[in-house]
Amino acid sequence: FAFPYGSGAMSGDGADWNKENMHTTTIITSSDTNVHVKRELDYDAYDVVCAWSNSEWKFQADSTSKHAFALSYTGEISGTISVELSCLLSPPNAIYPISRNDNWLATKATQTQTILKDNSQMPSFMDIYNASSVGWERFWNSGAFVALSDNTNNKMAFELERRVILSQYLTRVNSAGTLPPQETGYVSNSWYGKFHHEMRWWHATHFVLWQRASLLQRSDGWFTTMLPNATAYAAFQGYKGARWPKMVAPVTSPLITGKTGYDAPSVGNTTYSNSKYPLLYWTGPSGTGPLLAWQQPHVIWMAELQRLHADSENESKMVETRLMEQVVATADFMASYARSNASAAGKPRSRWLGPPLMGGEESGNVPESSYNPTFELTYWRLGLQIATEWIKRAGGTPSTEWETALSELATPSTVFYNGSEVYNINANCSGFPNNTQRTANCGAYESHPLFIGAYGMVDGSRVTPPISPLLVNNTMRLVLQQWNWDSTWGWDFPLLAFTMVRLSYDPMAVVEMLLFDTGKNTYLANGCVPGGTPCYLPANGGLLSAVAMMAGGFGAQTGPNHTGTNANWFPSDWNVKVEGFKAYP
Q1: Mean pLDDT computed over 343-350
Q2: Nearest alpha-carbon partner for 277 in 303, 251, 245
Q3: Antiparallel, parallel or unpaired: β 44-52 and 57-61
């Protein structure tokens, strides 16, 4: 057993083994068959309890480090020697910082507190093994399912099903906790190990579509708990409401005696903090994150997804009650962020997004000259429209600032290319490889083709004025012809598949997009998608959402049994069995 200090690297295993004097490892209690270790690192702390089955095995300090221990056999050696070992990792006193009132976590906390008080209560390895077996059997026998493997000698069907099965496993393990997961979940560090608001949509949207909404709901509590900090962060930048950055790190409670969140570096009591909460999170180191905005409406869209697919009208109202506060605060920021631009003064649609702004494509042009991205404008409208509908259903009056933002927000820009009108990446960047079509600082068709998601990932036909499917189709043809596929990431292929299904592309073309042969869309034997990170989980979650749209269709309405347009959108010569999917909104 060896305990490291935390690494400051962007990726890797999260361990720094060279700072022995910057953390402490203390044995609190020990016996012949268990041990309780206390860990402290800066402003963080946690407990480790381990139990083993044979008292002839001893837990002892290891000479290699003051943070290293060994469990060694000390009896006589004859025949096979074995031991069963189980360990528990817990925050101090099992006080989980987020969603601690949720039933599943409250039960876990109670069980953990019992073990921390009496280490002999630690479950054995076989107890954990059997409970895990029951849990996994319950998981695989719940929710929606699609079977493709009956297609004899159909390698594409087999491969798609393989990816679907392994992606369900990986996202259940890594993406269903109380905190927005980092891109690589528990596999390794990515983006400095920070909780990831941007990618939560890709990690967890599919849970609702596959009738496993409770797994998404576990992380809803984060956004309620962090609302005071999100509003402080927005106020620090001069906005109203709650802003959700790309990735964040929280200081949630005074875990170590004499130290509180107020003492943590870069936090402190600021002008923008109230008397109860300091700025408890801050954006992680990034050249992209602080100016990224496309993740902001995720909170509203994912709340609406849960409302649409609640199992009864009463449960739908419960979703609204539970999430109303975060929906309103998020919409308040969005309306505040869309500000009148001097260059558009006196003209209709004078409210702009940016500059400065980092578009979700993350390439195309520099933030200083980026404004009015096609996808962000569409998502902004849809988010404010959904929030308005929530308030009206609750009998309230929508914010006049929301209404003003909706009526004055700029519209996505277009350009003619080779005789066809197509959408720009943003108002200052078409992005085409032909340099004569590009403005200064505008990159080529590369990285994430997010702008195509304005009629795919979200339903841009619902907003006013609506996104044109005809122009999206023109744009899609250009993307398929000219995109730099080596620059893409794993979620880009489901992103394009959403749009292809809405545009009624041939189902085989949709399958071919999901299985597109390029480095960052390769699924290893364990289901992980390498390239950029060892296991890029947004690809897995995106795949499951895209397959859910293919199976259940799109155009979701309220109610438990609604089937959407283009349901069962698989090749006609495939033998496909589908059950239980919710229609994609």
Answers
A1: 71
A2: 251
A3: unpaired
Torsion angle of alpha carbons 337, 375, 384, 541, nearest 10°? Answer: -110
The helix or strand, by DSSP H or E, that contains position 146, with its residue range, turns out to be strand 145-147
Question: What is the rounded distance in angstroms from the CA atom of residue 449 to the CA atom of residue 446?
Answer: 7
Q: Which helix (H) or strand (E) holds 183?
A: none
Q: Of 233, 245, 239, 299, nearest to 270 (Cα)?
A: 233
Interval 366-401: pLDDT, tens: 888 889 999 999 999 999 999 999 999 999 999 999
124-176 pLDDT, tens digit per residue, is 999 999 999 999 999 999 999 999 988 778 999 999 999 999 999 999 999 99
Peptide linkage before 465 cis (omega within 30 of 0):
yes
Chain mean position to CA 510? 24
Residue 52 DSSP code? E
Q: How far apart are CA 267 and CA 283, in angstroms?
A: 11
Question: According to the model, what pLDDT value does residue 564 have?
Answer: 78
Distance CA 367, CA 114 (A): 52
Q: Which tokens in the block code for residue 135?
A: 């849990």
Query: Please, which residues bridge with residue 182 across strands?
Result: none
Matching residue, tokens 């300090």: 61
Q: Sign (positive/negative) of CA torsion 538, 543, 549, 552?
A: negative
Is 338 within 8 Å of 332 (Cβ atoms)? no
- How many alpha carbons lie under 13 Å from residue 355 in its C-beta half-sphere? 11
The candidate with the shortest Cα–Cα distance to 46, out of 96, 12, 1, 7, is: 96
The DSSP result for 516-530, as a single string, is --SGGG---TTS---
**pLDDT per residue over 36-68, tens digit each?**
999 998 767 899 999 999 999 999 999 999 999
In one-letter notation, the amino acid at residue 500 is M
Which pTM was predicted?
A: 0.93
Percent of the chain with pLDDT over 70: 88
Number of residues that this document lists for the chain? 585
